[in-house]
Structures are given as structure tokens and as C-alpha cells.
Amino acid sequence: MDTATTAGYRDEPDLEALDRKLFQQWELGANRQGAVATAREIAHRLALRSFAIHLEGDFWRISHGAEVLWDNDLVDEARQLVTSWRRLVTRICDDQGTDPTVPRIWASILSARVEHRARNFGGAVEYAQFAIAETRRAFGAEELAEQLRIGAVTPATELYCAALAIAIPAGRLRFGKVPTLRTQILDSWIEDAQLILAADAPPKLRRAHALVIQTFFALAERRWSRETEAWLRRLVRFDDLIRPRDSRGRQTKPLRDEALARFRGRDEEADRLREEARRSLASLPRHLLALRLNGWWSLPPSVDDKR
What we know:
Blueprint: H1 15-28, H2 32-48, H3 55-71, H4 75-96, H5 101-117, H6 121-139, H7 141-150, H8 155-175, H9 179-196, H10 208-220, H11 226-242, H12 247-263, H13 267-280, H14 285-293, H15 301-305
Helix pairs in contact: 1-2, 1-3, 2-3, 2-4, 3-4, 3-5, 4-5, 5-6, 5-8, 6-7, 6-8, 8-9, 8-10, 10-11, 10-12, 12-13
């Protein structure tokens, strides 16, 4: 791995230390201002190459910084951070003569996530499609399918789970009103997600919760059927088991319950849960705005006035 370190920064915290600080500020401390400052420091230090780069471990630290930035409506800054990482991956692999396939797939998945937040759903789908196709090519489609079927935790299944977890929500917005594309592309991704989630317990994959909840919302858009009802019950159980225990995890849970009630035709209950969700999401204005812009909610003017 790359070990270039700028001498003037040797006494400053490395990326792992900054990531721990970010976790304390964002997930545990609700220190929004401090978390943004730390995420910006990660971006600045990455631009300067002021620490040793370890592609596998540092990917998750860069992802964490980008998540904090886009959750604070700093999507352009998150994009810059992700773009810097994607370019750095190519440069390091070229310099070292190592296979860039897996790092490039992870970088594409992160790019899909940030483009989704930027509401560039076409771009998000393109990055996700690249990640899905490259994973199948690199590991073999048949071998990958078998690993998914038996619930194996491998580099291939980690990549495929993460790619589907962003492909599905981006695809819902990109293809949702185009029945042909939805059938050809989005429904096939949902079927692959169901293959991953078919066991009696949620898979022990890093992006498993994202896949669980995004598959849930995609299925909840369908007309009621016994099969879909059974799948939603399974996904609710999985969600309860692996949903993050931080404040964001608690705040977004009513969205799931509202979608389930709406799927079952219980509109009065769904309306009540929607109001509960509005109150719960008061401190997440970006999430509220996305619900309105995506056409899933019609929010009162007072919410938009705060933007």
C-alpha cells in the first residue's frame, strides 16, 4: 500500500484516529458542527496525501466522512471527497502495479451513493450498474450466485450486497415510472437482494441493513399479495435485529412502519404513523426534503420554509 506521508503532518492524527473522533461526534455525541469539521479535515488531509493510504480500511473511513457531509447538506463537498478517493485509488494501483478491480468497485459504489444524494439518479444507477457488472465479471456470475445462495461472507458478496443496496433506491427513482425498465433492471436487482436475504437470519455483511431496508421499501410499493406480505414480515424482523442503535436509526424507523401500514391498506394507521415520522425526523431536514422531492410525501409549507 501507499506509504507516502507529508513530514509536516506526522504529529497529527491519522485517518483512523479522525474516524474514531467522527464516530464520537456524530453517532454518539450529536455534535453536528464538530462532526462536519472533522469530515472536512479528512477531506483536506486526503487531498494533501498527508497520511499513509490503506485502500481497504481507509475506504470505510472516507465513506464515513462523506456520509456526514451529505447528511449535513454538504453534498458538493461530499462529491469532492468521493472524487478525490476514486482518483487516488486508480493512481495508487497504477503506481504499485496491483489489481485495481476491487478498490474501483468500492469507489464506484460510494460514487453511486453520493450521486443519489445529489439527486443525480441516472449517474447513481450508472455507477451501481458498473459495480454490479464488474463484481459478476471479476468473481464469476455462477460462483457469485452460489455464494449468495449459501450466505457466504466473501469479498464478492460484500461488494454485491453494497452495490444492490444503492442500486435499488436509485433504480426506484430512475425506473419507477417506466414499467419496461423496471421489469428488466430494477426487479432483477430486487430478486438478487431476495436471494441474499432468503436465509432465516440477516446476512453478516457490512451493508446488510441498507439492503434490508431498501428491499423492504421497494417491495412495499407493490400490490398486496401473500408472498410480498411474507417478505415484508421477514424484512421487518431483520430490520429490528440489525437496525443501527444510534439516534438516526430510531428517527427513521416510523418511515418503515408507515410504509407497511400503507401496503396493507390501513390508511388511517399510515396517516398517524406519517405524523409520528414527521415529528421524529424534525432534526433531519435533508431526509424530510428528500421525501417531498421524491414524491413520497407532501410536506406542510412550514417544513420547506426552514430550508
